[in-house]
Specification:
DHBP synthase, eleven-stranded mixed sheet, 11 strands, about 30% helix
């Protein structure tokens, strides 16, 4: 049965954040709030956790996961970015954006988009999410918490616990996150390309 932590969305309790980070580092998978919707996440090197998330969501092996990062230094370490792209990232992080970037060698091959050699990355503004990644000390693998047959993510942490209590190790109650996903921006070309219009304002990339 999964653990359930109620964490204050504006002032996350350090003790609970650290315990959540320890669960991630110990090989657990968690359901947690982000800037856009609830997500499933695990540590970067947790291949078994990745397989468990795929099973929960019933997604294929080629499904693209996102790296949820602590800050710009993570983006610079796990992606190859030009000075121009770095300035754009600096101006628009943290926030409700997922950026498609060229993956560096530090990204596990199982997470890299096979044909384009890219990876989705985001730096969260959500205080719980940001504190959690800081506690983990490295990016987390993540995907929106959308179950098979659904078009929208789950938004009620108590419903998430009821449905997934045997499938995840921790559910974090951080309140309502909303249904709208992050805005996805491809920064691998000469100009930014909006792949999905979500929570993040697209004006900086038009």
């Amino acid at each position: 049965m999964s653990q359930f932590f109620s964490i204050h969305p504006q002032n996350p309790q350090k003790r609970l954040i650290q315990k959540a980070g320890d669960i991630v580092l110990g090989g657990g998978i968690i359901a947690y709030p982000t800037d856009s919707a609830y997500a499933l996440g695990c540590s970067l090197d947790n291949k078994q956790g990745l397989d468990r998330i795929r099973e929960i969501r019933r997604i294929s092996l080629d499904h693209d996961f996102t790296l949820v990062c602590r800050d710009l230094s993570d983006l610079g370490s796990y992606a190859r970015v030009s000075n121009q792209v770095y300035r754009m990232l600096k101006s628009n992080t943290p926030g409700a954006y997922t950026f498609i970037l060229e993956a560096s060698r530090r990204v596990p091959k199982r997470l890299v988009q096979a044909k384009r050699k890219t990876i989705g990355m985001r730096v969260p503004e959500n205080r719980i999410c940001h504190a959690l990644v800081q506690a983990v000390g490295e990016p987390m693998m993540s995907t929106s918490l959308i179950l098979a047959g659904d078009t929208d993510p789950l938004t009620d942490p108590y419903e998430i616990r009821q449905i997934l209590e045997s499938d995840v190790d921790l559910v974090i109650d951080g309140g309502f996150c909303g249904l709208e996903p992050s805005t996805v921006v491809d920064l691998t070309g000469d100009r930014p390309r909006i792949l999905r219009h979500g929570c993040g304002d697209i004006a900086p990339f038009d």
